[in-house]
Each structure stands twice: as structure tokens, then as C-alpha cells.
Specification:
Length: about 100
């Protein structure tokens, strides 16, 4: 919750003890983000940014995420990157 105060934007996965009503229904579609289905879902919700915190992923999961980031790089514009954080603007969606 504290990190969200740097931008005050709504979060797809909620914040603190609030979870959006549709999050549970969509969690399995969003989990492998970026993917074709997750991007389509985020397009419907007009989501513009994706933030990754490295500490939430084990080594294998992070390797999979970075591979998918490369696969969908036409739709994701890197805005910030350091060892622990990556921020992307979603600039397009797959057909």
C-alpha cells in the first residue's frame, strides 16, 4: 500500500485490504502477464502501466517474466529499470 502512494493511481490487484471484485475472477488470466490474454483483459480496463518488483519472483519465475517481456516488447515501452524494479507503459495491444 505504501508504494502506491508515490503515484495514487488505481491498482488492478487492489491495495491494502481492498481487492477489486473482479480480481479473483481474472487472477489466472493476469498471472502470466505479459501474455496475449492478459493484455486483452488490461486493454478492456484501459490499464496504461505495468510495474514489476523483482523480489516477488523466484529465479525461474523471473526468467519466465523477462522472456515474456521480450516476446511482447512491441506493446511495452520501458520507462524505468534497475535491479529490483521495472516499469513499463502499455503502448499497444495484440490483435
Amino acid at each position: 500500500m505504501l508504494q502506491s502512494t508515490t503515484h495514487w493511481m488505481p491498482l488492478v490487484n487492489g491495495y491494502s485490504d481492498y481487492m477489486p471484485p473482479d480480481f479473483v475472477a481474472n487472477v489466472m488470466t493476469l498471472a502470466p502477464f505479459p501474455s496475449r490474454n492478459s493484455l486483452k483483459l488490461l486493454e478492456q480496463r484501459r490499464v496504461r502501466y505495468a510495474l514489476f518488483h523483482r523480489y516477488w519472483y523466484n529465479h525461474e519465475n523471473w526468467r519466465n517474466v523477462t522472456a515474456r517481456l521480450k516476446e511482447f516488447d512491441a506493446y511495452l515501452k520501458p520507462l524505468y529499470k534497475d535491479e529490483s524494479t521495472r516499469l513499463y507503459e502499455i503502448v499497444g495491444f495484440p490483435p
